Amino acid sequence: KNLKTHFPIKKRFLKKGKQFVKAVDGLNFYVNKGETLGIVGESGCGKSTMGRSILRLIEPTEGRITFQGKEITSLNDKDLRKMRGEMQIVFQDPYASLNPKMTVGAILGEALQTHGISQGSKERTEKVQELLVNVGLSPIHIDRYPHEFSGGQRQRIGIARAIAVNPSLIIADEPVSALDVSVQAQILNLFQDLKESLGLTYIFIAHDLSVVKHVSDRIGVMYLGKIVELSDKKGLFQNPLHPYTQALMSAVPSLDPDIKKERIILTGDVPSPSNPPSGCTFHTRCPYKQNVCETVIPKEINVAEGRYVSCHKYDDQYSKQF
Ligand code: SF4
Ligand code: MG
């Protein structure tokens, strides 16, 4: 609820006063148990900061995060550590997130030990081997180092580390963006298989609509730190409402008949989150922009069950101006 993560800009980069990068700027959404919520948006829209803020790897500035009925925004360190076993993250670059000096056995064993899962070393070795098999690797990989694996295999290790501690929620932050296209589908399928066999819930972050489409039940579209549209997958692809969603879809190659073509070409760059445009932050690039868009921040309109869009076109108060 109203999640905000703002970073102060270092003084030496400023002319005067205090300024903030509003990386995450007022997010509202929920994830149902057992589903995959996809979060899509261009790079720099705050997706990764959102993922890290939910786990409190970065402290949010404002707002509330509730998980399994508990408010985690106010947990102390000890309770937060316990909670971290329930919520895990898979990073975009598996190589950067795996210690190059540790064997796979040591990396996974450490995760198990930290969360008090396997006590004795024999039990731990067996559990690590089982994890390797679960992610499509071999038990003999246990003594190898991260550099001895391909990119796809390394991401399998990152996934094994996340599932090692029996989490119920996994935040996957662009887990296939660094991989070859031919490997992407294999890793996405692994995510699907594990979701079913382990009863996982995912928040799946991507910049690529086709990836999000493949894995999600519902999708949130992010622009400059805000979710501008939230919808079930089918509704979003058949009838994208927000002009930004429409623009993202028109950028997808049209082999997919489900992806509706509105042919919107975005002009200009994504504005800086340290100085976001007034009113609707998308107004500098929106082909439907009216005067009201420059001054009034759009409300979150509940257009249908489970569908939300933040755009004045769908607000009874302003829709006649469009
Ligand atoms: Fe475009 Fe206005 Fe809607 Fe923003 S509020 S997306 S500028 S039409
Ligand atoms: Mg990112």
UniProtKB/TrEMBL annotation:
Keywords: ATP-binding, Nucleotide-binding, Transport
Transmembrane segments: none
InterPro entries membership: AAA+_ATPase, ABC_transp_ATP-bind, ABC_transporter-like_ATP-bd, ABC_transporter-like_CS, Oligopep_ABC_C, P-loop_NTPase
ABC transporter domain residues: 9-249
Cited Pfam families: ABC_tran, oligo_HPY
Coiled-coil parts of chain: none
GO molecular function terms listed in the Swiss-Prot or TrEMBL record: ATP binding
Entry keyword GTP-binding: no
PANTHER family according to UniProt: ABC TRANSPORTER, ATP-BINDING PROTEIN, TRANSPORT ATP-BINDING PROTEIN
Family of this protein: Belongs to the ABC transporter superfamily.
Record-given protein name: Dipeptide ABC transporter ATP-binding protein
Organism: Psychrobacillus faecigallinarum
